[in-house]
Amino acid sequence: MKSKHILVSQPEPADVQKSPYANLINKYKAKIDFIKFIKIEGVEASEVRQDHVKLNEYTAIIMTSRNAVDHFFRIAKEMRFNVPDDMKYFCVNEATALYLQHYIQFRKRKIFFGKQTFADLIEIMKKHKEETFFLPSSNIVTNEDYTTMMNEAGLNFKKSMLFRTVPADLHEIDIKKYDMLVFFSPAGIDSLKVNFPDFEQGETVIGVLGGSTAKAVNDAGLTLGFSAPTKTAPSITMAIEEYLEAEAKEAKKK
Asked: Is pTM, for the whole model, over 0.85?
């Protein structure tokens, strides 16, 4: 079996042996390195003001990630805006909603959340068309999809970039030693190109999470090995396992 040394372009879980990656390590003897390919940089409050953002004009905030939560409250503080108790929060999933507890008293606020996708959240927001929504965003392409969906839903909103996703410095990494690279966003593929402009894929397997990441692989002239979610592999770890299992079966035939 070839794909044993795997690079996962995300932070290492707090306890790898209690994470979904444990089975890959124990069952397939895979060596997994967790390396962040991207970093988040906050936009200055002065830049947000230039985007004609006045936080007191909004009655609801859309939270699509923990980064959105962190940088909204950071900007609010820098702009000396006291977030009112009656502010409503619309979160892409329950995990993001629960993360709000770092900044507000959860039980005393009006918080709504979808199942997992922005499309789920749109259906909830449609029931609150009287609200004026503010969408803290980053510089990633996905935010354009969100804008389209909100316009189609007839929602009154303002989007403003509060943080940027930029490539991390990975020049000390020996990318050639990995049999498999796993990515979670188009920004990860951008980072690969920036840090390793002479990267030649060869037999290196590339796995991804999400359709936009798969498209970024193809746009970069690389070959996609596998992707998630699928019917049989709803998570990236299950997709990796499927690939390793298929490799193992092929090796036995030989």
From this structure: no
